[in-house]
Design brief:
Order of helices and strands of chain B: HHHHH
Shape of chain B: flat
Shape of chain A: globular
Largest sheet of chain B: none
Oligomer: heterodimer
Largest sheet of chain A: 2 strands, antiparallel
Number of strands of chain A: 2
Number of helices of chain A: 5
Strand content of chain A: 5-15%
Radius of gyration of chain B: 19 Å
Number of helices of chain B: 5
Radius of gyration of chain A: 10 Å
């Protein structure tokens, strides 16, 4: 799965730790999601979408 | 980087339990020298297992309460450690059965199960964390 989490996060000037704090996850988890090493669960994806005030499908797209 | 609350709690629970284990282990070994009778010796011998139950409780609580990737890493590391541990003990058992290796005491084998599994868990967890950390 591809995602725009890094792009959205940096646009807001947040560090990975800042986003992790907002999502109540570790910085390592934010990094793993951004690098595509880990696909978040649906509840976490909804949380991410909520933090950026966007829909899930505008952040996460099916991978090749 | 600041440690998350769930991991701070884990350390607060883990280290006193491990310290208790060490103290109770030495105390029970000392006490056993002076004791006669199977029941009394059995009771004193198993005393060090009590703080280990608290160690396991701390581990279960941190696994349940940390975030989903951390939980996945821990559970995968436990599965890998269990698999390697079982493979290792089975291989060792086969070698013992064939009289290729000297027979250890049953106590020695049983006592080493927990530390070996924890050691393998630690190695597996480090490898998993390294995998998820790479390409930062």
């Amino acid at each position: 799965m591809n995602n725009r989490v890094r792009e959205l996060r940096t646009a807001l000037g947040w560090s990975q730790a800042d986003l992790g704090e907002r999502l109540d996850v570790s910085r390592q988890t934010v990094n793993a999601i951004e690098t595509g090493k880990y696909d978040p669960s649906l509840p976490l994806a909804f949380k991410i979408a909520g933090v950026f005030s966007l829909s899930i499908e505008s952040i996460f797209t099916p991978g090749a | 980087m600041a440690m998350r609350a769930v991991h701070k709690r884990y350390l607060r629970e883990f280290f006193p339990a491990m310290a208790g284990y060490v103290v109770i282990l030495f105390a029970s070994l000392f006490w056993l020298r002076t004791l006669d009778g199977t029941l009394a010796r059995a009771a004193v011998t198993v005393l060090p297992a009590i703080p280990i139950a608290f160690v396991i409780r701390a581990m279960v609580r941190v696994i349940r309460d940390q975030d989903e990737l951390e939980r996945r890493i821990d559970l995968e590391a436990i599965a890998i450690a269990g698999g390697i541990g079982v493979f290792g003990f089975l291989t060792y058992g086969l070698l013992l059965n064939a009289k290729v290796l000297p027979d250890p005491t049953g106590a020695a084998v049983a006592i080493w199960v927990f530390p070996i599994l924890m050691g393998l868990f630690g190695i597996a967890k480090c490898s998993m964390r390294w995998y998820y950390r790479s390409h930062e």
